[in-house]
Amino acid sequence: MASRTDIRPVVKLKSTAGTGYTYVTRKNRRNDPDRLVLRKYDPVLRRHVDFREER
């Protein structure tokens, strides 16, 4: 049986605005096999921007 870290790996989400701010989260590989893109709050810019998964 697959371990928990194989199905839900830890990924870093980096701001596309170039501020260098990152979030750390887990993702489900079965539901999101591609790179994850989430719209989250960037406290450096004080607004919501896209955060992309980096490996």
From TrEMBL:
Q: An example of a Gene Ontology BP annotation on this entry? A: translation
**Highest taxon above the source species:** Bacteria
Under Gene Ontology molecular function, one entry of this record is: structural constituent of ribosome
Q: Which UniProt keywords apply?
A: Ribonucleoprotein, Ribosomal protein
Q: Which PROSITE patterns match?
A: RIBOSOMAL_L33 (PS00582)
Q: Which family does it belong to?
A: Belongs to the bacterial ribosomal protein bL33 family.
UniProt cross-references to PANTHER family, sorted A to Z: 54S RIBOSOMAL PROTEIN L39, MITOCHONDRIAL (PTHR15238), LARGE RIBOSOMAL SUBUNIT PROTEIN BL33M (PTHR15238:SF1)
What this protein is called in its record is Large ribosomal subunit protein bL33
Per the UniProt record, the source organism is Mycolicibacterium arabiense
